[in-house]
Amino acid sequence: MNVLQEIHAAATRLQPYLNPTLLTYSQYFSHLTGCEVYLKCEHLQATGSFKIRGALNRILSLTPQEKAQGVIAASTGNHGLAVAFAAKLAKVPATIFLPETTPAFKLNAITWEGVHIQLVPGDCLAVEKLARQKAQSQNKTFISPYNDLQVIAGQGTIGVELADAKLDAVFISMGGGGLLSGIGTFLKSVSPATQMIACWPENAPALYECLKAGKIIEVPEKPTLSDATAGGLEPNAITLELCQKLIDKQILISENDLKSAMRLAAEYEHWIIEGAAAVALGAFLNHATDYTGKKVGIVICGRNIAFETFQKATQ
Protein backbone atom coordinates (compact mmCIF):
# COMPACT_ATOMS: atom_id res chain seq x y z
CA MET A 1 0.00 0.00 0.00
CA ASN A 2 1.94 3.00 -1.28
CA VAL A 3 -0.20 5.92 -0.08
CA LEU A 4 2.34 8.58 -1.06
CA GLN A 5 2.55 7.32 -4.64
CA GLU A 6 -1.25 7.34 -4.88
CA ILE A 7 -1.42 10.92 -3.54
CA HIS A 8 0.89 12.09 -6.32
CA ALA A 9 -1.34 10.27 -8.83
CA ALA A 10 -4.46 11.79 -7.29
CA ALA A 11 -3.05 15.32 -7.54
CA THR A 12 -2.57 14.83 -11.28
CA ARG A 13 -5.95 13.13 -11.72
CA LEU A 14 -7.93 15.82 -9.88
CA GLN A 15 -6.14 18.85 -11.31
CA PRO A 16 -8.51 19.31 -14.30
CA TYR A 17 -11.58 19.19 -12.04
CA LEU A 18 -10.82 20.84 -8.68
CA ASN A 19 -9.08 24.10 -7.86
CA PRO A 20 -6.80 24.36 -4.80
CA THR A 21 -8.56 25.90 -1.80
CA LEU A 22 -7.30 29.01 -0.05
CA LEU A 23 -4.82 28.85 2.80
CA THR A 24 -5.62 32.17 4.41
CA TYR A 25 -3.88 33.99 7.25
CA SER A 26 -6.22 34.71 10.17
CA GLN A 27 -5.45 38.06 11.70
CA TYR A 28 -7.95 37.52 14.51
CA PHE A 29 -6.89 34.05 15.62
CA SER A 30 -3.22 34.99 15.28
CA HIS A 31 -3.72 38.07 17.49
CA LEU A 32 -5.83 36.09 19.97
CA THR A 33 -3.32 33.27 20.44
CA GLY A 34 0.14 34.63 19.69
CA CYS A 35 0.54 32.05 16.93
CA GLU A 36 0.78 32.53 13.18
CA VAL A 37 -2.53 30.96 12.21
CA TYR A 38 -3.55 29.84 8.73
CA LEU A 39 -6.95 28.41 7.84
CA LYS A 40 -7.24 25.82 5.05
CA CYS A 41 -10.59 26.63 3.47
CA GLU A 42 -11.98 23.22 2.57
CA HIS A 43 -15.45 24.55 3.42
CA LEU A 44 -15.14 26.52 0.16
CA GLN A 45 -14.47 23.36 -1.84
CA ALA A 46 -17.06 21.96 -4.26
CA THR A 47 -19.94 20.32 -2.32
CA GLY A 48 -18.95 22.32 0.78
CA SER A 49 -16.34 19.97 2.22
CA PHE A 50 -13.02 18.21 1.56
CA LYS A 51 -14.86 14.97 0.80
CA ILE A 52 -15.11 15.69 -2.92
CA ARG A 53 -11.36 15.10 -3.26
CA GLY A 54 -11.49 11.48 -2.16
CA ALA A 55 -14.81 10.66 -3.79
CA LEU A 56 -13.83 12.09 -7.17
CA ASN A 57 -10.40 10.46 -7.10
CA ARG A 58 -12.00 7.08 -6.37
CA ILE A 59 -14.55 7.38 -9.17
CA LEU A 60 -12.05 8.67 -11.73
CA SER A 61 -9.78 5.72 -10.94
CA LEU A 62 -12.48 3.13 -11.79
CA THR A 63 -12.14 0.96 -14.87
CA PRO A 64 -14.71 1.47 -17.66
CA GLN A 65 -16.45 -1.77 -16.59
CA GLU A 66 -16.60 -0.65 -12.95
CA LYS A 67 -18.03 2.70 -14.01
CA ALA A 68 -20.74 0.98 -16.03
CA GLN A 69 -21.71 -1.25 -13.10
CA GLY A 70 -22.07 1.72 -10.77
CA VAL A 71 -21.07 2.62 -7.22
CA ILE A 72 -22.56 2.53 -3.73
CA ALA A 73 -21.60 4.75 -0.81
CA ALA A 74 -22.72 5.25 2.79
CA SER A 75 -22.67 8.61 4.51
CA THR A 76 -24.24 10.99 7.02
CA GLY A 77 -24.15 13.59 4.27
CA ASN A 78 -20.82 15.08 3.17
CA HIS A 79 -19.34 11.92 1.68
CA GLY A 80 -22.66 11.02 0.12
CA LEU A 81 -22.96 14.44 -1.47
CA ALA A 82 -19.38 14.20 -2.73
CA VAL A 83 -19.93 10.76 -4.28
CA ALA A 84 -23.18 11.98 -5.86
CA PHE A 85 -21.44 15.03 -7.34
CA ALA A 86 -18.50 12.96 -8.61
CA ALA A 87 -20.78 10.27 -10.04
CA LYS A 88 -22.79 12.86 -11.95
CA LEU A 89 -19.60 14.45 -13.25
CA ALA A 90 -18.25 11.09 -14.44
CA LYS A 91 -21.66 9.80 -15.60
CA VAL A 92 -21.51 6.83 -13.21
CA PRO A 93 -24.71 5.34 -11.67
CA ALA A 94 -24.69 5.76 -7.90
CA THR A 95 -26.73 4.78 -4.85
CA ILE A 96 -26.17 6.53 -1.51
CA PHE A 97 -27.15 4.80 1.73
CA LEU A 98 -27.91 7.22 4.56
CA PRO A 99 -29.19 6.98 8.15
CA GLU A 100 -32.87 7.80 8.52
CA THR A 101 -31.80 10.68 10.77
CA THR A 102 -29.92 12.52 7.99
CA PRO A 103 -31.00 16.21 7.94
CA ALA A 104 -33.43 17.18 5.19
CA PHE A 105 -31.11 19.78 3.66
CA LYS A 106 -28.44 17.14 3.09
CA LEU A 107 -30.96 14.71 1.62
CA ASN A 108 -32.14 17.42 -0.76
CA ALA A 109 -28.61 18.29 -1.85
CA ILE A 110 -27.82 14.65 -2.66
CA THR A 111 -31.15 14.14 -4.42
CA TRP A 112 -30.53 17.16 -6.63
CA GLU A 113 -27.45 15.41 -8.03
CA GLY A 114 -29.74 12.80 -9.56
CA VAL A 115 -28.60 9.71 -7.64
CA HIS A 116 -30.65 7.03 -5.88
CA ILE A 117 -30.99 7.35 -2.10
CA GLN A 118 -31.60 4.50 0.34
CA LEU A 119 -32.53 5.52 3.90
CA VAL A 120 -31.56 2.94 6.53
CA PRO A 121 -32.35 2.63 10.27
CA GLY A 122 -29.42 2.50 12.67
CA ASP A 123 -26.19 4.35 13.25
CA CYS A 124 -23.51 5.32 10.74
CA LEU A 125 -21.55 2.08 11.08
CA ALA A 126 -24.66 -0.06 10.57
CA VAL A 127 -25.48 1.89 7.41
CA GLU A 128 -21.90 1.50 6.20
CA LYS A 129 -21.92 -2.27 6.72
CA LEU A 130 -25.22 -2.69 4.90
CA ALA A 131 -24.07 -0.55 1.98
CA ARG A 132 -20.88 -2.59 1.59
CA GLN A 133 -22.89 -5.83 1.64
CA LYS A 134 -25.24 -4.50 -1.03
CA ALA A 135 -22.30 -3.42 -3.19
CA GLN A 136 -20.77 -6.88 -2.99
CA SER A 137 -24.03 -8.67 -3.79
CA GLN A 138 -24.74 -6.36 -6.76
CA ASN A 139 -21.14 -6.39 -8.06
CA LYS A 140 -20.81 -2.63 -7.62
CA THR A 141 -17.88 -0.64 -6.23
CA PHE A 142 -18.31 0.42 -2.62
CA ILE A 143 -16.78 3.82 -1.88
CA SER A 144 -15.94 4.09 1.82
CA PRO A 145 -15.68 7.53 3.44
CA TYR A 146 -12.25 6.58 4.83
CA ASN A 147 -11.39 2.89 4.42
CA ASP A 148 -10.19 3.16 0.83
CA LEU A 149 -6.73 3.88 -0.53
CA GLN A 150 -7.97 6.08 -3.38
CA VAL A 151 -10.21 8.09 -1.05
CA ILE A 152 -7.31 8.66 1.34
CA ALA A 153 -5.09 9.66 -1.57
CA GLY A 154 -7.66 12.20 -2.71
CA GLN A 155 -7.78 13.76 0.75
CA GLY A 156 -3.98 13.74 0.71
CA THR A 157 -3.98 16.35 -2.05
CA ILE A 158 -4.71 18.86 0.72
CA GLY A 159 -1.25 18.02 2.03
CA VAL A 160 0.21 18.76 -1.39
CA GLU A 161 -1.36 22.21 -1.23
CA LEU A 162 -0.12 22.80 2.33
CA ALA A 163 3.48 21.73 1.72
CA ASP A 164 4.89 25.10 0.66
CA ALA A 165 3.53 26.81 3.78
CA LYS A 166 6.10 25.02 6.00
CA LEU A 167 3.72 24.70 8.94
CA ASP A 168 4.86 23.67 12.41
CA ALA A 169 1.56 21.91 13.13
CA VAL A 170 -1.71 21.06 11.41
CA PHE A 171 -4.96 20.57 13.36
CA ILE A 172 -7.32 18.06 11.73
CA SER A 173 -10.79 16.87 12.75
CA MET A 174 -11.10 13.10 13.06
CA GLY A 175 -13.85 10.73 12.00
CA GLY A 176 -12.63 7.58 10.28
CA GLY A 177 -9.15 9.05 9.92
CA GLY A 178 -8.97 9.34 6.14
CA LEU A 179 -8.31 13.08 6.16
CA LEU A 180 -5.35 12.92 8.53
CA SER A 181 -4.05 9.74 6.88
CA GLY A 182 -3.83 11.52 3.54
CA ILE A 183 -2.58 14.90 4.70
CA GLY A 184 -0.15 13.39 7.17
CA THR A 185 1.34 10.92 4.70
CA PHE A 186 2.24 13.67 2.27
CA LEU A 187 3.38 16.33 4.75
CA LYS A 188 5.53 13.91 6.75
CA SER A 189 7.28 12.95 3.50
CA VAL A 190 8.36 16.53 2.79
CA SER A 191 8.39 18.02 6.31
CA PRO A 192 8.84 15.34 8.98
CA ALA A 193 8.88 17.92 11.79
CA THR A 194 5.36 19.16 10.99
CA GLN A 195 3.10 17.85 13.75
CA MET A 196 -0.21 16.17 12.95
CA ILE A 197 -2.72 17.11 15.64
CA ALA A 198 -5.77 14.82 15.70
CA CYS A 199 -8.95 16.38 17.10
CA TRP A 200 -12.20 14.75 18.29
CA PRO A 201 -15.41 15.85 19.99
CA GLU A 202 -15.60 14.25 23.43
CA ASN A 203 -19.01 12.84 22.53
CA ALA A 204 -17.77 10.91 19.48
CA PRO A 205 -14.24 9.57 20.08
CA ALA A 206 -14.41 6.26 18.19
CA LEU A 207 -11.02 6.31 16.49
CA TYR A 208 -9.43 7.93 19.57
CA GLU A 209 -10.46 4.94 21.69
CA CYS A 210 -9.42 2.49 18.99
CA LEU A 211 -5.96 4.07 18.94
CA LYS A 212 -5.76 3.76 22.72
CA ALA A 213 -6.76 0.11 22.51
CA GLY A 214 -4.40 -0.58 19.61
CA LYS A 215 -7.23 -2.23 17.68
CA ILE A 216 -10.67 -1.47 16.34
CA ILE A 217 -13.30 -1.73 19.07
CA GLU A 218 -16.90 -0.69 19.51
CA VAL A 219 -17.13 2.72 21.15
CA PRO A 220 -20.37 4.16 22.57
CA GLU A 221 -21.02 7.71 21.45
CA LYS A 222 -23.31 10.56 22.43
CA PRO A 223 -24.99 13.13 20.16
CA THR A 224 -22.58 15.78 18.85
CA LEU A 225 -22.72 18.84 16.63
CA SER A 226 -19.82 17.21 14.80
CA ASP A 227 -22.12 14.68 13.16
CA ALA A 228 -19.80 14.39 10.15
CA THR A 229 -17.12 12.79 12.34
CA ALA A 230 -19.41 10.51 14.36
CA GLY A 231 -19.62 6.75 14.01
CA GLY A 232 -17.49 3.68 14.49
CA LEU A 233 -14.87 2.11 12.25
CA GLU A 234 -15.07 -0.95 10.03
CA PRO A 235 -13.16 -3.93 11.46
CA ASN A 236 -10.50 -3.81 8.72
CA ALA A 237 -10.07 -0.03 8.50
CA ILE A 238 -6.66 0.79 7.02
CA THR A 239 -6.69 4.18 8.70
CA LEU A 240 -5.94 2.75 12.14
CA GLU A 241 -2.39 1.75 11.24
CA LEU A 242 -1.79 4.93 9.25
CA CYS A 243 -2.95 7.14 12.10
CA GLN A 244 -0.83 5.20 14.60
CA LYS A 245 2.23 6.19 12.56
CA LEU A 246 1.27 9.76 11.73
CA ILE A 247 -0.41 11.36 14.75
CA ASP A 248 1.79 13.46 17.03
CA LYS A 249 -0.88 14.68 19.47
CA GLN A 250 -4.51 13.83 20.26
CA ILE A 251 -7.08 16.30 21.59
CA LEU A 252 -10.69 15.93 22.72
CA ILE A 253 -12.98 18.96 23.03
CA SER A 254 -16.37 19.55 24.64
CA GLU A 255 -19.56 20.49 22.82
CA ASN A 256 -19.40 23.93 24.47
CA ASP A 257 -15.89 24.53 23.11
CA LEU A 258 -17.07 23.34 19.71
CA LYS A 259 -19.94 25.84 19.79
CA SER A 260 -17.60 28.61 20.88
CA ALA A 261 -15.33 27.94 17.92
CA MET A 262 -18.30 28.10 15.56
CA ARG A 263 -19.30 31.48 17.02
CA LEU A 264 -15.81 32.91 16.73
CA ALA A 265 -15.45 31.76 13.11
CA ALA A 266 -18.76 33.45 12.29
CA GLU A 267 -18.03 36.63 14.20
CA TYR A 268 -14.43 37.25 13.12
CA GLU A 269 -13.98 35.31 9.88
CA HIS A 270 -17.62 35.75 8.77
CA TRP A 271 -17.92 32.06 7.92
CA ILE A 272 -20.62 29.53 8.68
CA ILE A 273 -18.75 26.30 9.44
CA GLU A 274 -20.11 22.93 10.46
CA GLY A 275 -19.45 21.21 13.75
CA ALA A 276 -16.71 18.98 12.36
CA ALA A 277 -14.72 22.01 11.21
CA ALA A 278 -15.15 23.64 14.60
CA VAL A 279 -13.58 20.60 16.29
CA ALA A 280 -10.15 21.37 14.80
CA LEU A 281 -10.49 25.10 15.47
CA GLY A 282 -11.69 24.56 19.04
CA ALA A 283 -8.91 22.08 19.76
CA PHE A 284 -6.34 24.62 18.58
CA LEU A 285 -7.83 27.38 20.71
CA ASN A 286 -7.73 25.16 23.80
CA HIS A 287 -4.05 24.32 23.23
CA ALA A 288 -2.76 27.47 21.54
CA THR A 289 -0.29 28.21 24.33
CA ASP A 290 1.62 25.09 23.27
CA TYR A 291 2.27 26.73 19.89
CA THR A 292 3.07 30.34 20.76
CA GLY A 293 5.17 31.87 17.99
CA LYS A 294 4.64 28.81 15.78
CA LYS A 295 3.10 28.63 12.32
CA VAL A 296 -0.10 26.63 12.63
CA GLY A 297 -2.58 25.36 10.04
CA ILE A 298 -6.19 24.46 10.82
CA VAL A 299 -8.20 22.48 8.29
CA ILE A 300 -11.69 24.00 8.09
CA CYS A 301 -13.15 20.82 6.69
CA GLY A 302 -16.74 21.77 5.84
CA ARG A 303 -19.69 24.15 5.97
CA ASN A 304 -22.67 21.79 5.58
CA ILE A 305 -24.84 22.51 8.58
CA ALA A 306 -28.56 23.28 8.78
CA PHE A 307 -29.01 27.01 9.36
CA GLU A 308 -31.34 26.51 12.32
CA THR A 309 -28.79 24.16 13.90
CA PHE A 310 -26.08 26.75 13.40
CA GLN A 311 -28.27 29.46 14.93
CA LYS A 312 -29.00 27.41 18.04
CA ALA A 313 -25.36 26.42 18.46
CA THR A 314 -24.07 29.98 18.22
CA GLN A 315 -26.64 31.82 20.34
List the helices and strands and how they pair.
Elements: H1 3-14, E1 23-25, H2 27-33, E2 36-41, H3 51-60, H4 64-69, E3 71-74, H5 78-90, E4 94-99, H6 104-111, E5 116-120, H7 124-137, E6 141-143, H8 149-162, E7 169-173, H9 178-190, E8 195-201, H10 206-213, H11 239-246, E9 249-253, H12 255-269, H13 275-286, E10 295-300, H14 307-313
Helix pairs in contact: 1-8, 3-5, 3-8, 5-6, 8-9, 9-11, 12-13
What report would you give on this structure?
This protein has 315 residues and is of the alpha/beta class. It has two domains: 3-50 and 149-313, Rossmann fold, CATH 3.40.50.1100; 52-143, Rossmann fold. The chain is 47% helix and 16% strand. It is built from 14 helices and ten strands. The strands form two sheets. A six-stranded mixed sheet has the order 1-2-10-7-8-9. It has a four-stranded parallel sheet with strand order 5-4-3-6, with helices on both faces. Strand 4 (94-99), helix 6 (104-111) and strand 5 form a beta-alpha-beta unit. Helix 8 (149-162) packs across helix 9. The protein is globular, with a radius of gyration of 18 Å. The relative contact order is 0.17. The mean pLDDT is 95.
